[in-house]
Write a structure and sequence with these properties.
- This protein has helices at residues 22-27, 38-46, 51-63, 83-94, and strands at residues 6-8, 11-13, 68-72, 75-79, 99-102, 108-110.
- The longest helix is centred in the middle third of the chain and has 13 residues, at 51-63.
- The chain is built from four helices and six strands.
Length: 111
């Protein structure tokens, strides 16, 4: 699965033909994402009219999962039970909502 589009509130996001360097994204540890839409950046940066919906959607993507984080060459690597789950968490990471891991009390830590 690839994350390509999403809807939040009454708006839909995602370019029909994303212009991304997928190899560069893989080097950054982001896989299963082929999403591009400057409107999301606008909503998040400028607290646009749909900000609360977009923020809530991405926050939920970054914390509602069973992913385990491992370190490889000082980079976090997500270990997921399915490609769907990996795509959703990587999409949140790509859009600025990074899952860091769980602390010693099993609380979820995001950045």
């Amino acid at each position: 699965m690839e994350f390509k589009k999403f809807s939040a509130g009454s708006k839909s996001y995602g370019a029909k033909v994303p212009k991304l360097d997928l190899n560069e994204m893989k080097r950054k540890g982001i896989t299963n994402v082929n999403f591009d839409d400057p409107a999301v950046d606008f909503e998040l940066s400028n607290r646009g009219e749909n900000y609360n919906y977009v923020h809530s959607f991405l926050e939920i993507l970054s914390v509602c999962h069973t992913i385990i984080v491992e370190k490889k060459d000082d980079m976090p690597v997500y270990n997921a039970s399915s490609p769907d789950e990996l795509a959703l968490v990587n999409a949140a990471k790509y859009l600025g909502y990074s899952f860091i891991g769980r602390d010693e009390d099993d609380n979820i830590v995001v950045d």
